[in-house]
Specification:
Elements: E1 10-21, E2 27-39, E3 66-76, E4 90-95, E5 98-103, H1 104-110, H2 112-119, E6 129-131, H3 137-147, H4 159-168, H5 172-182, H6 192-202, H7 205-214, H8 218-226, H9 236-253
Parallel strand pairs: 4-6
Antiparallel strand pairs: 1-2, 1-3, 4-5
Protein name: BTB domain-containing protein
Domain BTB: 89-148
InterPro entries: BTB/POZ_dom, SKP1/BTB/POZ_sf
């Protein structure tokens, strides 16, 4: 177990890794795992998930083996505290030939773009109808299902669509939900280059960090990232991050 303390109450995103070492310099790694933990001055935060997969081969190590834990606080995570008003604060969003009723104040708290759009003095706003071009109604309805209090979960079927809409409509909290899903390897089987491409396209710093730190050798980094077809399409900044991780691992291996 491990503990962290904080002078104030807040929800934090943590990346946890652990490694088992013995006197022969053999190392078994586990993680990284991403989790949300509530930190407070007088509360101990425990984590057990980092034990997964590490202890099954412990007999291969001698009695002097030691365990090292590394915990990184990436950035504070602010959960949604928006109240849902089921009253008459609805507008009509027109998507192609179809329309949806949208709770404008609630959605505006999620989206800076839609907040400005609903507050604009456009001709359409006089009738309470707001057209949105080039957005499938099924995707927009899926987004509402995710952000409304019903809380439909992010999954492998909607995560990329939600990332695209979160990027288009400036919805950082929705991006955050998608990123937390991507970083939980128990919920999907996306490979590393796929996740890195998403991190590159939508500027997902936590996902980038998680993917690169999970690759614990230069051979893994080459096979999973550098030698894949998708590597050539990565941005210059992402390739620099990959190169930096490669140099870090190369130094460790020497």
């Amino acid at each position: 177990w491990c503990e962290m303390r904080s002078p104030s109450l807040f929800d934090a995103t943590l990346i946890t890794k652990c490694a088992l070492h013995n006197n022969n310099n053999n190392v078994s790694n586990s993680g990284p795992f991403t989790q949300i933990a509530r930190l407070k001055d007088d509360v101990t935060v425990l984590s057990g998930r980092h034990n997964a997969g590490l202890w099954s081969n412990i007999s291969a190590y001698d009695n002097d083996a030691n365990v090292k834990f590394a915990i990184k606080l990436v950035r504070p995570f602010n959960p949604c505290t928006i109240s849902f008003d089921a009253g008459e604060n609805y507008v009509t969003v027109k998507l192609g030939n179809a329309s949806l009723q949208v709770n404008a104040p609630y959605v505006s708290e999620w989206s800076s773009f839609l907040r400005a759009y609903f507050a604009s003095q456009m001709r359409e706003s006089d009738a309470g109808i707001y057209p949105i071009e080039d957005c499938p109604i099924d995707d927009f309805r899926e987004m509402l299902d995710v952000i409304y209090p019903t809380g439909k979960p992010i999954d492998v079927w909607n995560v990329e669509r939600m990332l695209a809409l979160a990027d288009r409509f400036i919805m950082p909290m929705l991006t955050r939900q998608c990123e937390l899903f991507l970083n939980d390897g128990h919920k999907h089987t996306m490979n590393e280059i796929h996740m890195l491409l998403l991190a590159d396209k939508y500027n997902l710093f936590l996902t980038r960090t998680n993917v690169l730190e999970k690759l614990v050798s230069t051979s893994l980094l080459r096979s999973k990232i550098i030698k894949t077809e998708g590597y050539a399409t990565l941005s210059y900044e992402m390739k620099r991050a990959v190169d930096a991780r490669y140099v870090e691992l190369d130094v460790q291996e020497r």
